[in-house]
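Fig. S4 source data, part A: sequence.
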Amino acid sequence: MKILLHSEHLDKIKNSGLGKSIQHQMRALEIAGIEFTTDSDDDFDLLHINTYFPKSMLFARKTREKGIPIVYHAHSTEEDFRDSFRFSNQIAPLFKQWLTQCYKLGDMIITPTTYSKKILDTYELETDVIAISNGIDLERFTPIEHARDKFLQKYGYNEDDFVVMAIGLYLKRKGILDFVELAKRMPDVKFIWFGFTDLSLVPDEIEEAVETKLPNLHFAGYVDNQDILLALQGSDLYIFPTHEETEGIPAIEACASKADFIVRDIPVFDDWLIDGETTYKAKDIDEFEDKIRAFQNKELPSLTEAAYQVALDRDLPAIGEQLREVYERAYQLAKNRQI
């Protein structure tokens, strides 16, 4: 069975979480020995589609009319579209309608977590939704020698600085406003944010936050994966103040990097990140502040070894086999559809 991994505008989304998940799919299929192509002009036996742009939907519709099986990967929901770009909240209900029409074209739907599956189950898709993690390529997450020294030197920090990092686009949903507020509240702590979004696309309050001038706050912009790995291994603490995710790849990367981290206590993390066992959770900005202080004062034990098991469970060889099972089910469903 030859799979077409179809992803429209990959050049524009390659640096996003969606772009990472598509890269992970390719690697997972390679490891599993599943033949695939990314060229829509190639022959293929099953379409695995990742994007919901108009041309993607049209391509999926034509593929379905030919009787070819389709697995639609539901990376997005109305909920995680809100609090992102300008006017996103106003058009979110229309976005949900569009997603519903796209996802209904699938013989099977994949989504990253049981949380996002529960959301999609309310969309009345009339299609089986399977939760499969976006996964992690653990081969990339090898320890970097003298990571802390290299990280401090690269970003101009001193040995006695306590450095808190975050990763994400410049979106309200990602918790960037709380990140900036924490920097204001904790002038003795260094805060650095990795990621970038064109400020013309975001609301004024986000633009103002990114342009905040504080001696302890730095926006590093987009950096490559190796620099993210260096930061996760070299900083003192990673925080993920996101308000909504379908999974949250950076949390898995933190587990794989054996980084101490705090996530916001939101439903998407309920069944795979356990407070006080594999990570620490904070409900609001006050709890983030309290737990950052506790880490700074060495009052919280490290949970990195337990967290690493989370990454092991999501290593790409396991993901490849899970994808194979879904492909086989979708192929049979499409075959039955033609009878």
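Fig. S4 source data, part B ends here. Residues 57 and 101 are 8 Å apart (CA to CA).
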